[in-house]
Amino acid sequence: MNTKKTFFKPAGNHIIFEQFDTETVMINLKSGHYFSMNPSGQRIWDLLRHWPTLEEILLALGPEERAGKSGIQNEVAAFLDTLVEQGLTERVPQRPDGLPPLTRDAAADYAPPQIQVFTDQKELLLLDPIHEVDEPGWPTPKED
User: Fold this and answer.
1) At residue 94, does pLDDT exceed 70?
2) Dihedral angle at the C-alpha atoms of 31, 34, 37, 41, nearest 10 degrees?
3) Helix and strand totals (H; E) in the chain
4) Are the C-beta atoms of 33 and 41 separated by less than 8 Å?
5) Residue 125's CB: how many other CB atoms inside 10 A?
6) What are residue 19's phi and psi, to 5 degrees?
7) Closest CA to 24 of 122, 115, 119, 121
8) Top-level CATH class of 7-126?
9) Dihedral sign, Cα of residue 43, residue 45, residue 49, residue 55
10) pLDDT confidence of residue 123
């Protein structure tokens, strides 16, 4: 993966999320999957509003000596790959001007970012109760 010119951004409005103290819960309304992220994953998700490169994410996560370690780089790169595979994040070749600058979190403890994927509520999450109501008044699954 050429990360020098690859920027990462949130995939779009079909991703909704809520942040709690030590966890972020997300739903991909297109896939019906929902997700749970640990605090390191939550920090990376927060950084995505800046459309960062992998290198910028590594520097924002803490001290430069920590960011340069290949183990951390591999963990963060694998996490970003998972976000892309799950439709939560997109790789783009450039970012727009005017985005706020990244801030470094030098005091934060680093732990490998983790995401759990849940598919057990897919059918329910794919129902659209506002727009898919039929005459009896209950949402119905979209027909393929």
Assistant:
1) yes
2) 20
3) 5, 6
4) no
5) 18
6) -100, 130
7) 115
8) alpha beta
9) positive
10) 83
The predicted-structure confidence for 67-80, as pLDDT tens digits, reads as follows 557 788 999 999 99
Give the tokens for residue 85: 């595979």
| Cβ proximity of 86 and 28 under 8 Å | yes
What's the average model confidence in pLDDT over 101-113? 76
How far apart are the C-alpha atoms of 88 and 8, rounded to whole Å? 10
Contact indicator for 57, 45 with CB cutoff of 8 Å: no
Task: Note the helical H segments in 16-130.
Answer: 39-47, 54-60, 64-67, 70-85, 122-126
CA gap 101, 117 in Å, rounded: 30
- 38: tokens are 């640990």
- Averaged pLDDT for residues 103-126: 82
CA 113 to CA 72: how far, in whole Å? 9
